[in-house]
Write a structure and sequence with these properties.
This protein is about 45% helix and about 15% strand. The chain is α+β, with helices and mostly antiparallel strands and about 725 residues long. Bound molecules: manganese (II) ion.
């Protein structure tokens, strides 16, 4: 096929747009040719024949100069040394950004093995395009690539491209109202995917035609006559369906071509809605209708604004025919898709304007003009009911799985959208190959890789970082479960300690005897209830061994200060080991208990056990509730390097170097300062508050006596509640 020459391309544009910028098109033509140089297509044609053909396709849609120029340049960034800066300088910012848009779309890879993803991919394309011209160039690009697909040597690659065309691009062309491109794309893909079926269908449709003569014309005539008799003005247009759409119907309904007789489609276009229903009445009284095929999209329009009446008749010559009945206005919306819909909504369409843009593709130029003159792509999308894509972002997994998320979503949402397990074990992420924080807001087209660790559990802080309900509820569920596990672990330990001290074995089968009396479903629930401070270990003991229960096990006496448990009291106890119980066991704030000091626990329903040093003044609040007291003891191995915070205050002389002396002494004793503040007391002294980390009470004592030995340090005291 001879390549479209420079002057031919310009002539074609000038034919529908006399004001087109001829010079710009010429410059782009020459530039593309020079840039692509000696590059070749798989067909053996020079590469630059491709952008020129793409531009040629777009002239048949009567598109503006910017679109034609973009078509000529569309592969220069990807395949030649051109840069955005260079294109901006030579052709202006608008064209450079259009070319950039097409280049970005080209980088999106579709994994269309998932049928249900196709719809999302189409939305994604629209959302990524921002300017409808980017999408139009991409469609024309795909059309030319499909026309030359047979030159690609690899059959797998040909099939993949054809399938992608069927899944993504053909329906997109259809949505945009460019039926001609849609049908050609479908046919070219069909040829690749199922050449035998296509050949057979074409042959059979030919036979049909030969046997029945010009059936379409005869049915058209019969329909027209009926309308005329009823005095209705209307256009009747019939056509044979394309081999691909016939094949799809056969596939969908699992029928043979013989059974599928409605291979003819007719359209009746009339003046107003009332006429639509009159035509429907005439058709149904003249020919029998096929039950179950009638659809009234006039009273109930489709989501995309499509309105029409569909019916199927056993029509003239007993052929099944599909008939669509609609008004002129509905027809334009159906044919020109989103753009016509938008124009009507804006009040720019209507009866006077419609013949004008219906006769050519002027609607697109109007649209483009409006985009140029201030209307932002956002406004455009909003006006065309595409806003549903606009509050979404489309992201990919490294394997190409497309995940649709609401705007504002983070990698945590992404992880949960892929799978709850992935969300629960997510520790970090890479966005487009770079390590990014989990709070990163995802953008359209981001590739997100989730880094996981089996040791990870959802953090309460995540709740504020997610935008999806799925992630939020999964996080809450996991947090609840983690807390329950901690309660359960603590409860088991407390019960065991009480049974131990009373010389009984706390095996599961023994404990289970308490389930009924204590109204617990199962043993895990019982452990959790004990750990959460809702059931006392003594209650469990009394339920299992009612006769061995001690006074106070069942009902706690209120005894005032004397009720405080003493060591060896045969109470349940909590052991504070190096392994933290997290949510179930907490130190009371600012009490700073240290290993080596006596501690007690206070059961706090719903919160677990709160640990206090025995001399904490805060404990007085619980003197009246001895049943809440739990023995607690340290379970820290001697060689442990685990540290605990301690706080003290001192007064130091205002002398050079005294603070330095304090800090280096603390360091010498193998401790870290975690917090330090100073207040000037008077000209000679200041108060120093220090929090340090120590391993136990002895460690703290050694440090404090050493500090006392420094001259100029007075009134050294430990501080705690
Ligand atoms: Mn291309």
């Amino acid at each position: 096929m001879a390549m479209l020459r420079q002057y031919e391309l310009v002539d074609r544009v000038l034919a529908y747009d006399p004001k087109a910028d001829e010079g710009l098109i010429n410059r782009a033509y020459v530039y593309a040719m020079k840039q692509h140089g000696s590059q070749m297509r798989a067909s053996g044609d020079p590469y630059f024949s491709h952008p020129i053909e793409v531009a040629g396709i777009l002239t048949s849609l009567k598109l503006d100069t910017a679109t034609i120029v973009t078509a000529l340049l569309h592969d220069t960034i990807e395949d030649t040394g051109s840069t955005m800066a260079e294109l901006t300088q030579l052709f202006g910012a608008q064209i450079a950004s259009l070319v950039d848009g097409v280049t970005k779309l080209g980088k999106i890879e579709f994994t269309s093995e998932r049928e249900k993803q196709a719809e999302n991919f189409r939305k994604f394309l629209v959302a990524m395009s921002n300017d409808i011209r980017v999408l139009l160039v991409k469609l024309a690009d795909r059309l030319h690539n499909m026309r030359t697909l047979h030159f690609i040597p690899s059959p797998e690659k040909r099939k993949r491209i054809a399938q992608e065309t069927l899944d993504i691009y053909a329906p997109l062309a259809g949505r945009m109202g460019i039926q001609e491109i849609r049908e050609e794309l479908e046919d070219l893909a069909f040829k690749q995917i199922n050449p035998e079926a296509r050949e057979t269908l074409i042959r059979r449709l030919d036979e049909f035609r030969t046997n029945s003569g010009d059936l379409v014309a005869r049915i058209e005539k019969a329909l027209r006559e009926r309308l005329k008799e009823a005095g209705i003005e209307g256009e009747v247009k019939g056509r044979e369906k394309s081999p691909y759409s016939v094949w799809r119907k056969m596939e969908r309904r699992a029928v043979s071509l013989e059974q599928l007789s409605d291979i003819y489609g007719f359209r009746v276009v009339v003046a107003d809605e009332a006429d639509c229903y009159r035509v429907l009445g005439i058709l149904h009284t003249t020919w029998p209708m096929v039950p179950g095929r009638f659809k009234d999209y006039i009273s109930t329009p489709k989501n995309n604004g499509y309105r029409s009446i569909h019916t199927t008749l056993i029509g003239p010559e007993r052929k099944r025919v599909e008939v669509q009945i609609r008004t002129r206005k509905m027809h334009e919306v159906a044919d020109f898709g989103i753009a016509a819909h938008w124009l009507y909504k804006e009040g720019r369409g209507g009866a006077e304007a419609s013949p004008e843009f219906a006769s050519t593709f002027r609607w697109l130029r109007q649209l483009v003009e409006m985009l140029e003159h201030g209307s932002t792509p956002e406004e455009f999308l909003e006006h065309t009911k595409l806003q549903m894509f606009y509050d979404q972002v489309f992201c990919f997994s490294p394997k190409g799985l497309l995940i649709t998320l609401p705007r504002g979503a983070t990698p945590i949402d992404f992880a949960y959208a892929v799978h709850t397990d992935i969300g629960d074990t997510c520790v970090g992420c890479k966005v487009n190959g770079r390590h990014m924080p989990l709070r990163t807001i995802l953008q359209n087209g981001d590739e997100v890789e989730i880094i996981r660790s089996q040791a990870q559990r959802p953090s309460p802080a995540w709740e504020a970082l997610v935008a999806t309900g799925k992630a939020r509820s999964a996080i809450r569920r996991a947090l609840r479960q983690a807390k329950l596990n901690e309660f359960s672990k603590l409860g088991r330990q407390m019960i065991k300690s009480l049974f131990d001290v009373r010389g009984k074995r706390a095996s599961d089968s023994v404990i289970e005897r308490a389930l009924g009396p204590l109204k617990q479903e199962n043993i895990e629930d019982l452990f959790a209830a004990v750990g959460a401070g809702e059931v006392r270990p003594e209650d469990v003991f009394a339920a299992v061994y009612p006769k061995l229960a001690l006074p106070g096990d069942k009902e706690a006496p209120v005894t005032g200060k004397k009720g405080r448990p003493k060591p060896g009291d045969e109470r349940a106890s909590v052991r504070i080991s190096g392994q933290s119980y997290g949510a179930a066991v907490k130190f009371a704030p600012d009490t700073f208990p240290l290993p080596g000091e006596r501690i007690v626990g206070i059961r706090s329903p719903g919160e677990g056990v709160i640990i206090y040093p025995i001399d904490s003044p805060g404990l007085e609040a619980f003197d009246a509730e001895p049943e809440r007291w739990v023995d607690a003891s340290w379970d820290i191995p001697a060689a442990s390097s685990q540290t605990f915070p301690a706080r003290f205050v001192m007064t130091a002389a205002n002398r050079v170097g005294s603070l330095g002396g304090i800090t280096s002494l603390i360091a010498d004793y193998g401790s870290n300062i975690i917090n330090l503040s100073m207040n000037q007391r008077d000209a000679d002294f200041y108060d120093i508050h220090i929090d340090i980390e120590v391993t136990d009470i002895k460690h703290l004592s050694r440090i404090m006596s050493a500090l006392n030995g420094i001259s100029g340090i007075n009134a050294l005291t430990r501080v705690r509640k």
